């Protein structure tokens, strides 16, 4: 295929703004890609293969490697993480750091005016160093955090099946490769549950249904034309989404099978061309919203208090330039500039810790929802049961063992090419390997009607070979859910004879299946139909007038530790609801065996008869839902969310994808189908509720440490600035220089960098934890002024006891308040981190103890250090320190008293 000369830059007219130009380029780029795909869609398949230099057998391995090297990985550009230098720039692009930078610029401009008369102000490089320290600390932690998160995401790989050849003359083999290694010209095999890895021109398709919601917004799957090998259909539509012989990147297969040749990868795909406008940012979680609310709350306080400080200092001291500098320092002191770094570090460290418990976090902010989760909807297979399916028995319609049922079931499982599950594997495992050779000699595959979750069955059509080698007849073998298969049967095999299926025989067959269901066995029906060998194409309509052969009964024993895991979740405040597509009798039996109070089992058919209001009421009172399809599962999740619950959904199948997306936290496993893993926020490396319970606890630990930092720093900074406001109104000189306030604030923030390594009290971890921005504001207003009480007593101490009551002695006053303010601020870390009595009933971890001790030692050292002169401070008399010890003790006692009252009044703490 010749390359088009049109490019997005040539097609896009220059816009008046950068955003308009970007939008025009995106639109132009999408048109170019759409035109290219329309051409591929209109060409015969053989011509498409020739254009991309491929064959129906697939690429040679060396060809694929060469193309990967030339074209790059199959990754849409916007999905790549920012480069280190972009992260570094972003670390400094922070309102709090920008304020510090503005302060440096202002101070430098002030010095320039008197540069001929005054020496260079040493506070300027110190403040510049503070800017660098803040930005570099944030960059380092966020860079490490993003690297850790990327490493965790790499543990969960999404693969696709492609046909590759080892050499020119070797036969093609189907191999699983990571999606990012797919190249143009690869022949891809698709089955139900697969993500489409790139833009494909379909070569063959059978009952293929594609979910295109990510591209078109249409929730219903779109069908693709059935095509046979070497029958490459053509399309005339110019819209690639509507072309019935294309499958585009970003879509997924809901049912059927297909093969297709890759015609575009990465940013050259239709999805890639739309990525800038289509995908954008993910919706904000309650965590994101909560952090924004706290920031806005602090900004509102800043907008009120900073002008007051500026006005009071300007009028009382007469130096408006110094008052402005001090007001900016107050603004910095009120805002937790380390908040983004601490939050990111907390989440990343939590994700790494969770990975040690076999829980991989794909999206860091999902940790908050995991900690807040109070309802878990889960399938029973693999979570409540061993996920070790064994074919327990194969029965005729009257319940007697019948080897013919096993033979037909084996043929169905052996020849199918679509979504093979554990049930199929259990059937295959019951037949000797030697039998496989015999079967392949007696039968050949004619066609297949793949499984889907609406029909709940699948069929294969086989040609039965005669001795001459010619096929005299075709046999259609259907295996699936009992009700769905039985409804299609008109005859039954009874004691070796084919007889009409009377109502009495239908009831007897249903009772046989029901009796095995009550034993906790999963039952499938097997039916056949023989047709003349006069065609090679079969459809769903041919699944009619079947003859029921018998039943397969599978055993999936309950896990020994399932009851313990359910109790652990209950103790953690999480209600478990079982939502399964299985039979209600099997679901009820398994749930009862693991200690679930089943009550009334609600089926999918009942859910369809209810409106949303009625479903909300029913979902709240129901523990087990059976025979639920994908739409019904998603409705259950939304109904519970409407009732105010934070809902987690644990699933691993195609039919779980919608519910995984709708849940507050979607949870899947590393063995799940591609679309389930892609839809999930959390991936379990082991499908076990105990693993999930450990993840929940770690999620609450991470969330608790984040809230701890926000509440501590917000209340402490608010109290500090409140003290500044009081001092500014009554003291005839600056109560603390801008530089001193900034150094104090930076030191306090550094003391809290160890917060992500702290522990939470066990009592905190027992309940789901949700974000409460209103509670944070209340916490700040109540606890903040507590420290101000002792700031004011320190003012009085320095003024009356140590005689620092004039501008000539302001350095002594400021030094005394600097030390007391920093030590009480740092001590508050221990006072507020727990609802218990600190040090006695709850002790912080070693990193927190060491970091706070170092900062407190730094605070005492500064007035005696070489930095004292630069910061405008002086050494404190030794008689100050007994007063300081008394102040700290009184502060601890008062804070503990206020904490006790607060907990009793509002029944909450962190």
UniProtKB/TrEMBL annotation:
**PROSITE patterns under this entry?**
ATPASE_E1_E2
Q: Which InterPro entries match?
A: ATPase_P-typ_cation-transptr_C, ATPase_P-typ_cation-transptr_N, ATPase_P-typ_cyto_dom_N, ATPase_P-typ_P_site, ATPase_P-typ_TM_dom_sf, ATPase_P-typ_transduc_dom_A_sf, ATPase_P-type_domA, HAD-like_sf
Location relative to the cell: Cell inner membrane
Stored Pfam families: Cation_ATPase, Cation_ATPase_C, Cation_ATPase_N, E1-E2_ATPase
Instruction: Tell me its EC number(s), please.
Output: 7.2.2.14
Q: Which residues form the Cation-transporting P-type ATPase N-terminal domain?
A: 39-112
Reactions listed under catalytic activity: Mg(2+)(out) + ATP + H2O = Mg(2+)(in) + ADP + phosphate + H(+); ATP + H2O = ADP + phosphate + H(+)
Q: What topology does it adopt in the membrane?
A: Multi-pass membrane protein
Q: Manganese: is it a keyword of this entry?
A: no
Residues annotated as transmembrane: 92-112, 124-140, 297-315, 327-348, 779-799, 844-864, 876-894
**KW Nucleotide-binding (keyword) present:** yes
Alphabetized, the UniProt keywords read: ATP-binding, Cell inner membrane, Cell membrane, Magnesium, Membrane, Nucleotide-binding, Phosphoprotein, Translocase, Transmembrane, Transmembrane helix
Query: Which superkingdom, per the lineage?
Result: Bacteria
- Give the enzyme's main class according to its UniProt record, as a single word: translocase
**Which stretches of sequence are listed as region Disordered?**
1-25
Taking the first listed entry, what is the main subcellular location of this protein, grouped into a coarse class?
membrane
Query: Which PANTHER family does UniProt cross-reference here?
Result: CALCIUM-TRANSPORTING ATPASE (PTHR42861)
NCBIfam families named among the record's database cross-references: ATPase-IIIB_Mg (TIGR01524), ATPase_P-type (TIGR01494), PRK15122.1 (NF011702)
Query: Any idea what job this protein has?
Result: Mediates magnesium influx to the cytosol.
Q: Which family does it belong to?
A: Belongs to the cation transport ATPase (P-type) (TC 3.A.3) family. Type IIIB subfamily.
Q: Can you name this protein?
A: Magnesium-transporting ATPase, P-type 1
């Amino acid at each position: 295929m010749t390359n088009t000369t049109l490019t997005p830059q040539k097609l896009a007219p220059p816009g008046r703004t950068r955003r308009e130009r970007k939008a025009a380029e995106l639109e132009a780029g999408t048109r170019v890609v759409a035109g290219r795909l329309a051409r591929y869609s209109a060409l015969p398949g053989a011509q498409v293969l020739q254009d991309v230099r491929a064959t129906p057998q697939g690429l040679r391995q060396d060809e694929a490697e060469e193309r990967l090297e030339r074209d790059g990985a199959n990754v849409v550009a916007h999905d790549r993480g920012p480069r280190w230098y972009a992260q570094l720039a972003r670390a400094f692009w922070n309102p709090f750091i920008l304020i510090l930078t503005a302060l440096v610029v202002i101070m430098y401009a002030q010095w320039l005016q008197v540069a001929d008369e005054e020496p260079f102000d040493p506070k300027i490089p110190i403040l510049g160093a503070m800017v660098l320290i803040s930005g570099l600390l944030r960059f380092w932690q966020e860079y490490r955090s993003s690297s850790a998160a990327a490493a965790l995401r790499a543990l969960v790989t999404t693969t696709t099946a492609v046909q590759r050849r080892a050499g020119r003359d070797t036969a093609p083999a189907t191999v699983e490769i990571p999606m990012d290694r797919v190249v143009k010209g690869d022949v891809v095999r698709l089955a139900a549950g697969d993500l489409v890895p790139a833009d494909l021109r379909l070569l063959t398709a059978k009952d293929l249904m594609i979910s295109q919601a990510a591209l078109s917004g249409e929730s219903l799957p779109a069908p693709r034309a059935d095509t046979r090998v070497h029958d490459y259909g053509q399309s005339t539509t110019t819209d690639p989404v509507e072309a019935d012989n294309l499958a585009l990147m970003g879509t997924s297969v809901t049912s059927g099978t297909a093969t297709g040749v890759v015609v575009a990868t990465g940013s050259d795909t239709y999805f890639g061309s739309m990525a800038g406008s289509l995908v954008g940012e993910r919706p904000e979680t309650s965590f994101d919203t909560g952090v924004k609310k706290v920031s806005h709350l602090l900004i509102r306080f800043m907008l009120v208090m900073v002008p007051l400080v500026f006005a009071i200092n300007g009028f009382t001291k007469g130096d408006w330039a110094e008052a402005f500098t001090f007001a900016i320092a107050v603004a910095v002191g009120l805002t937790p500039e380390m908040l983004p770094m601490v939050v990111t570090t907390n989440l990343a460290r939590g994700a790494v810790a969770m990975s040690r418990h076999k829980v991989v976090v794909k999206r860091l902010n999902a940790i908050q929802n995991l900690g807040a989760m109070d309802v878990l909807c889960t399938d029973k297979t693999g979570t409540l049961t061993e996920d070790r399916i064994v074919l327990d028995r194969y029965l005729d319609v009257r319940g007697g063992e019948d080897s013919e049922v096993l033979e037909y079931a084996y043929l169905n499982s052996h020849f199918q090419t679509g979504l093979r599950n554990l049930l199929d594997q259990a059937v295959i495992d019951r037949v000797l390997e030697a039998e496989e050779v015999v079967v392949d000699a007696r039968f050949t595959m004619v066609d297949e009607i793949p499984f889907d979750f609406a029909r709940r069955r699948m069929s294969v059509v086989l040609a039965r070979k005669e001795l001459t080698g010619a096929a005299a007849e075709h046999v259609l073998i259907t295996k699936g859910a009992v009700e769905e298969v039985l409804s299609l049967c008109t005859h039954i095999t009874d004691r070796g004879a084919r007889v009409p299926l009377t109502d009495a025989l239908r009831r007897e067959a249903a009772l046989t299946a029901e009796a095995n269901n009550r034993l906790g066995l999963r039952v499938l029906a097997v039916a056949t139909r023989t047709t003349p060998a006069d065609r090679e194409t079969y459809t769903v309509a041919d699944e009619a007038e079947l003859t029921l052969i018998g039943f397969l009964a599978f055993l999936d024993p309950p896990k020994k530790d399932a009851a313990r895991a359910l109790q652990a979740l209950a103790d953690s405040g999480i209600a478990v609801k079982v939502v399964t597509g299985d039979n209600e009798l099997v679901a009820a039996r398994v749930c009862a065996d693991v200690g679930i109070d089943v009550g009334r089992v609600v089926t999918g058919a009942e859910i369809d008869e209810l409106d949303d209001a009625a479903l909300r009421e029913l979902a709240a009172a129901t523990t087990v839902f059976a025979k639920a399809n994908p739409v019904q599962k998603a409705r259950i999740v939304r109904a519970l969310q409407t009732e105010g619950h934070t809902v987690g959904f644990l699933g691993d199948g195609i039919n779980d994808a919608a519910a995984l997306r709708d849940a507050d936290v979607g949870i899947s496993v590393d063995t799940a189908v591609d679309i389930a893993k892609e839809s999930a926020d959390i991936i379990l490396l082991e499908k076990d509720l105990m693993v999930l319970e450990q993840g929940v606890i770690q999620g609450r630990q991470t969330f608790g440490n984040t809230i701890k930092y926000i509440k501590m720093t917000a209340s402490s900074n608010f109290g500090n600035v409140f003290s500044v406001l009081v001092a500014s109104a009554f003291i005839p000189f600056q109560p603390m220089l801008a530089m001193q306030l900034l150094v104090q604030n930076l030191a306090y923030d550094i003391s809290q960098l160890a917060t992500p390594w702290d522990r939470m009290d066990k009592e905190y971890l027992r309940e789901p934890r949700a974000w409460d921005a209103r509670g944070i504001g209340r916490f700040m207003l109540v606890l903040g002024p507590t420290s101000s009480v002792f700031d004011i007593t320190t003012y009085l101490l320095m003024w009356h006891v140590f005689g620092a009551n004039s501008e000539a002695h302001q350095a002594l006053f400021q030094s005394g308040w600097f030390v007391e303010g920093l030590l009480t601020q740092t001590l508050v870390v221990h006072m507020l981190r727990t609802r218990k009595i600190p040090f006695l009933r709850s002790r912080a971890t070693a990193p927190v103890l060491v970091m706070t001790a170092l900062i407190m030692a730094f605070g005492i050292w500064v007035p005696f250090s070489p930095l004292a002169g630069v910061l405008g401070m002086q050494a404190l008399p030794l008689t100050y320190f007994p007063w300081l010890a008394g102040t700290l003790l009184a502060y601890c006692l008062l804070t503990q008293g206020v904490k006790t009252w607060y907990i009793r009044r509002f029944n909450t703490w962190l």
